[in-house]
Amino acid sequence: MRGKREGKPGEPGGPRRETRVTRPGESSVSKEASRTDGRFARAPASVRIIGGQWKRTPLAVVDAPGLRPSSDRVRETVFNWLAHFIPDPSSVSGLDLFAGTGVLGFELASRGAARVTLVERNATLEAQLQRLKRKLGADKVTIVRGDALAFARGAPEQSFDVVFLDPPFDSDLLEPALQAAARLVSTDGLIYAESGVPLEEQAALARGLRIVRAGRAGHVHFHLLQRA
């Protein structure tokens, strides 16, 4: 997943080690919070799949603009949330619109999803995803090279049960991606969105979505949404 960078624990402005989970109503702050102040300047050298059949598999993080994969502790929280709403993922269809390292999509596949589609426009990152797919024998994973929003416009309505949105924090892609995801997600499906600022409850409702879980790890805000 792409697009975020956070300082290391202990650095000035870096994240605290704990992950803070909030109620949806607590997630609103000023829209003036900066997304491009340099707090997301570094990405780790690698991340790992934390659950399922490929548990502990490392994924390299290449030096690519806007790439900062979701941290292990954030993903652990998010997949605990997903397990609460979807105890059996064996029939789940997942979509990661901004795949990057592929760690969110491969994590979902590792935990038993029926099929997962990863969309990535960067040729280097897409090639790395293809190599990882071959290494893991991940036959249920489909990798698409292309623009995320263009793919979303062409996908059938309500065709995915879980949609991951992790665009670059210094871009304006989250708003249109949320609009696209609201159309693509199934009636009881879930949307995961990660950003440099928290989503606002009223803004989500205006898109026909409601925030069912929200958390924060340092400067990273992460949310789980459903159809309102």
Can you offer a commentary on this structure?
The strands form two sheets. The protein has an eight-stranded mixed beta sheet. It has a two-stranded antiparallel ribbon with strand order 2-3. α4 (148-154) runs parallel beside α5 (174-184). 26% of the residues lie in helices and 25% in strands. The protein is of the alpha/beta class. The model is unreliable at 1-19 and 23-41 (pLDDT under 50). The chain contains six helices and ten strands. β9 (209-217) and β10 (220-227) form a beta hairpin. The chain has a single domain (20-227), classed as Rossmann fold (3-Layer(aba) Sandwich).
Number of strands: 10
What's the gyration radius in Å?
16 Å
Strand content: 25-35%
Helix fraction, binned, reads: 25-40%
Going by CATH, the homologous superfamily would be: Vaccinia Virus protein VP39
CATH class: Alpha Beta
Describe how the helices and strands are arranged.
Blueprint: E1 20-22, E2 46-48, E3 58-60, H1 72-85, E4 93-96, H2 103-110, E5 115-120, H3 123-136, E6 141-145, H4 148-154, E7 160-165, H5 174-184, E8 185-195, H6 201-206, E9 209-217, E10 220-227
Parallel strand pairs: 4-5, 4-7, 5-6, 7-8
Antiparallel strand pairs: 1-9, 2-3, 8-10, 9-10
